[in-house]
Recover the amino acids of this structure.
């Protein structure tokens, strides 16, 4: 879910903090990638002509492997160094959101039993049932190992780890679609181009946190309170408080403590939840030691990578060869 309505607030109140650019502008940079996001996107979007998962000869789903191979190769081809960050155990505060996601999957599966649905409706519902498994994660770690691409297994949420790695200068950008990355303090966030009139996949949007705060005329601490009041994964929004109202309240009153006495219908337990949300958004600040951070490094294994992709995954021999050639040309 991220932060409800934050993208719209940035477009309205701090548009200059969003820079549209070509991916190659990040050449020579190190980027942290939200691994779960990429896996979800590939499982949803990498499909055959009849909208089925891509599979190998044994029927194993390889959509995620295929998609992340090509995506990662695009980064390497323009000399961007990707570091994937994998989610660890989510905090207890996220239980409600995870429960909602499980219910959404169950509801979608139930709705698919309706015999009157069109093929388009069935496809839409089926994509809502996609869930990541340990096997998916292990598949991608194996792929990255063969590609010589580093990764981090976080103890907590990947966005929190990646944001702190960026905040401390270990990486230059974080690639994700989750807007709570900014609440975690990420200085520079890369996401799919926000200008929907641009259809090219190599065009990205970069959101600069400091510039965004200046546009909002908020401190980072006030921005975190804004995110919590909008509604986040750790704390649902107060009824009838949307993103615009939350923005105006924080602008005028500066903190959740000042806002709450003016509101009606504040849910029971909200005070504990918002205070814990603040703690979670900043818990890794200056406590995640870059010197002792466990990063899995590997040497690129070109022959093994080729055999794995063409034989084990059933990918196109010609396309794999061409991609590997492009990947090697940009890699340093």
């Amino acid at each position: 879910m991220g932060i409800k309505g934050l993208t719209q607030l940035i477009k309205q109140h701090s548009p200059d903090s969003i820079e549209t650019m070509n991916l190659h502008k990040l050449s020579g940079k190190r980027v942290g990638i939200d691994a779960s996001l990429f896996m979800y996107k590939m499982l949803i979007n990498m499909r055959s002509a009849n909208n089925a998962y891509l599979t190998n000869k044994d029927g194993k789903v390889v959509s995620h492997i295929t998609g992340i191979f090509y995506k990662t190769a695009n980064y390497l081809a323009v000399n961007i160094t990707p570091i994937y960050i994998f989610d660890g155990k989510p905090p207890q505060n996220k239980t409600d959101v995870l429960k909602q996601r499980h219910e959404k999957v169950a509801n979608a599966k139930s709705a698919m039993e309706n015999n009157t649905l069109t093929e388009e409706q069935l496809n839409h519902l089926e994509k809502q049932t996609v869930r990541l498994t340990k096997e998916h994660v292990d598949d991608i770690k194996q792929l990255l190992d063969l590609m010589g691409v580093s990764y981090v297994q976080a103890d907590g949420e990947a966005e929190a780890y990646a944001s702190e790695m960026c905040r401390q200068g270990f990486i230059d950008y974080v690639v994700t679609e989750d807007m709570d990355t900014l609440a975690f303090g990420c200085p520079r966030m890369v996401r799919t181009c926000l200008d929907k009139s641009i259809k090219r996949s190599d065009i990205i949007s970069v959101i600069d946190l400091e510039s965004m705060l200046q546009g909002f005329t908020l401190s980072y601490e006030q921005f975190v309170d804004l995110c919590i009041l909008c509604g986040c994964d750790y704390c649902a929004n107060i009824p009838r408080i949307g993103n615009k109202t939350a923005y105006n309240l924080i602008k005028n009153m500066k903190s959740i403590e000042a806002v709450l006495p003016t509101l009606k219908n504040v849910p029971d337990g909200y005070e504990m939840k918002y205070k814990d949300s603040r703690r979670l958004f900043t818990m890794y600040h200056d406590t995640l030691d870059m010197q002792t951070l466990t990063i899995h490094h590997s040497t690129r294994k070109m022959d093994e990578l080729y055999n794995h992709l063409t034989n084990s995954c059933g990918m196109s021999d010609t396309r794999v060869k061409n991609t590997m050639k492009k990947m090697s040309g940009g890699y340093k």
